Automatic annotation (TrEMBL):
<feature type="signal peptide">
    <location>
        <begin position="1"/>
        <end position="17"/>
    </location>
</feature>
<dbReference type="Pfam" id="PF00182">
    <property type="entry name" value="Glyco_hydro_19"/>
</dbReference>
<dbReference type="GO" id="GO:0006032">
    <property type="term" value="P:chitin catabolic process"/>
</dbReference>
<keyword id="KW-0326">Glycosidase</keyword>
<feature type="domain" description="Glycoside hydrolase family 19 catalytic">
    <location>
        <begin position="49"/>
        <end position="281"/>
    </location>
</feature>
<protein>
    <recommendedName>
        <fullName>chitinase</fullName>
        <ecNumber>3.2.1.14</ecNumber>
    </recommendedName>
</protein>
<dbReference type="InterPro" id="IPR023346">
    <property type="entry name" value="Lysozyme-like_dom_sf"/>
</dbReference>
<feature type="disulfide bond">
    <location>
        <begin position="138"/>
        <end position="146"/>
    </location>
</feature>
<keyword id="KW-1015">Disulfide bond</keyword>
<dbReference type="InterPro" id="IPR016283">
    <property type="entry name" value="Glyco_hydro_19"/>
</dbReference>
<keyword id="KW-0732">Signal</keyword>
<keyword id="KW-0378">Hydrolase</keyword>
<dbReference type="GO" id="GO:0016998">
    <property type="term" value="P:cell wall macromolecule catabolic process"/>
</dbReference>
<dbReference type="InterPro" id="IPR000726">
    <property type="entry name" value="Glyco_hydro_19_cat"/>
</dbReference>
<feature type="disulfide bond">
    <location>
        <begin position="246"/>
        <end position="281"/>
    </location>
</feature>
<dbReference type="GO" id="GO:0008843">
    <property type="term" value="F:endochitinase activity"/>
</dbReference>
<dbReference type="GO" id="GO:0000272">
    <property type="term" value="P:polysaccharide catabolic process"/>
</dbReference>
C-alpha cells in the first residue's frame, strides 16, 4: 500500500543519514570536513594572543626579527584544520592543542635564558635556524641522498635535522626540501607547514602522531601501557623526540617544553590547571628508540 512505501522511504532516508558523515564549510580556513563544524582556529586564537605568546620574537637581539607572524601560522594551519588540527573536540581541547603545539615550537626556537628580559618563556620564535651548526647532518641514505654542498642543520618551527627528514617532510608537504632545505628559514608559512605536518603525521605505520596522542584519538595497547606510554602532553614529546628526552627522569629540556606549554595555556586563557593527565614522559619507553629525530 502507498503508506507502506512512504514508511519504507522514510526508513531508507533515516538509515542512509546515519551512514553519511556531516561535513561543514568555513570558507578558506576549513572546508569539506567534519572538523569544520567546530570552531576554527581564528575563532579562538587572535593576533594579540600570538603576540603575547611570542612577545620578544622581534626584539633587536632576536635572530629572526620580522620572520614569524600570525598570518603565516594561520595560512599553514588552514591546510590541516580539515584534518583536525586545532579543530578536534570542544573549544577547550582545540585551544589546548594550539598551546601544546606552540609549547614545542616555543621551547625549540627560544633564545631566552634565565635572566632574559620578560623571562625565558617569552622568547619563543627567536630562531628560524640553528645558529652555529656543528656538522652538516648528512647521512648516507638511498631514498634521500644528500645534495652536494647542502647542509641539513636545524631549520623551521619544529627544527628539522638530517637529509632523510628533510626528504620525508618535503614529500609530505610537496616541497623539495631535500634540495632546498633553506626554504624553511626563508618562508615562515612553509616553516609552520612543515612543523604542523610533523605534529599531525606518524613517523611509522601503526604508531600515533603527536596530534593523536594529545587529543585522544590514540588508544594505548597493552604493550603501550606496560611501557608507561599514555595519552597526554607527555606522549607528544615521546612521538617527537623519543629517547632524546623521554625515559630519563626530568631533564631540563623536558621541563622546559612542559613549562612553555603551561605558560601558553595561561596566556590563551585556558589555565595550566587544565594541562591534562600524563604531562611528562619521564618514565615512558620511547616509541622509536635510539634514532636521529626529525626534531632535536
Amino acid at each position: 500500500m502507498w503508506w507502506v512505501s512512504v514508511t519504507m522511504l522514510v526508513l531508507a532516508v533515516t538509515v542512509s543519514g546515519k551512514t553519511k558523515e556531516k561535513v561543514c564549510d568555513k570558507g578558506w580556513e576549513c572546508s569539506n570536513s567534519k572538523y569544520c563544524c567546530n570552531d576554527t582556529i581564528t575563532d579562538f586564537f587572535q593576533v594579540y594572543q600570538f603576540e603575547n605568546l611570542f612577545a620578544k620574537r622581534n626584539s633587536p637581539v632576536a635572530h629572526a626579527v620580522g620572520f614569524w607572524n600570525y598570518q603565516a601560522f594561520i595560512t599553514a594551519a588552514a591546510l590541516f584544520e580539515p584534518l583536525g588540527f586545532g579543530t578536534t573536540g570542544g573549544k577547550q581541547m582545540q585551544m589546548k592543542e594550539v598551546a601544546a603545539f606552540f609549547g614545542h615550537v616555543g621551547s625549540k626556537t627560544s633564545c631566552g635564558f634565565g635572566v632574559a628580559t620578560g623571562g625565558p618563556l617569552a622568547w619563543g620564535l627567536c630562531y628560524n635556524r640553528e645558529m652555529s651548526p656543528s656538522q652538516s647532518y648528512c647521512d648516507p641514505n638511498y631514498l634521500y641522498p644528500c645534495t652536494p654542498g647542502v647542509d641539513y642543520y636545524g631549520r623551521g618551527a619544529l627544527p628539522v635535522y638530517w637529509n632523510y627528514n628533510y626528504g620525508i617532510i618535503g614529500d609530505g608537504i610537496k616541497v623539495d626540501l631535500l634540495n632546498h632545505p633553506e626554504y624553511l628559514e626563508q618562508n615562515a608559512t612553509l616553516a609552520f607547514q612543515a612543523a604542523i605536518w610533523r605534529w599531525m603525521t606518524p613517523m611509522k605505520k601503526k604508531q600515533p602522531s603527536a596530534h593523536d596522542v594529545f587529543v585522544g584519538n590514540w588508544k594505548p595497547t597493552k604493550n603501550d601501557t606496560l611501557s608507561k606510554r599514555l595519552p597526554g602532553f607527555g606522549a607528544t614529546m615521546n612521538v617527537l623526540y623519543g629517547d632524546l628526552i623521554c625515559g630519563k627522569g626530568f631533564p631540563d629540556e623536558m621541563n622546559n617544553i612542559i613549562s612553555h606549554y603551561q605558560y601558553y595555556l595561561d596566556l590563551m586563557g585556558v589555565g595550566r590547571q587544565f594541562s591534562g593527565d600524563n604531562l611528562d614522559c619521564a618514565e615512558q619507553e620511547p616509541f622509536n628508540p635510539s634514532s636521529k629525530s626529525a626534531s632535536s
